[in-house]
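Repro:
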Amino acid sequence: MTDSIIFDVDGTIWDTTPIVAKAWNAALDECGLSHAHVDAARLKGLFGLPMDDIIADILPNEPPQKREEFKKLCYINEHEYLHREPGILYPEIREVFKALSEKLPLFIVSNCQSGYIELLLEKTGMGSFVKDFACYGDKGLLKAANISLIVEKHGLKHPVYVGDTQMDADACAEAGVPILYASYGFGKVASPDGVIQKPADLLKLI
């Protein structure tokens, strides 16, 4: 029986791609790289990757110094833009988190940058529902290792991970944790352990 739930962020809890696209395009303009502008649809295909991999995809022909300049501006702009205009929560996700947290410990693991999960929790008022989190930006670890870290740190016996991409599924397979595919999100999962069509479907676990 499930004793805990670990969540992905983008495409699972909320969608920030329209806001992040504006923030990153402003950073590209500042770096003199307006030709590389991105839109929300493209970001949906890239979110979930570590930041360095995303930037390599956006700026494949730029030298490391230019990519690093852009990355620093991305972090600054993204944080500022999302403080002004938070991401869009998926329907009933806050209510679902509240209900689940009364029965099970909830966690978040993402390949995002430092401060992103904290911003999510602050802007949505969901901080009290989440017991712990880990991300690539804080630990320098990819998703599979961070999932394992949370499992070991909290002594979880039967956790499940909720995510929306094949990258999530691959990380779960490596960590030995079953995945529930959030089919309302950004991507596809070939052979998930279960499927939810909306966040409220998670309430069946309790």
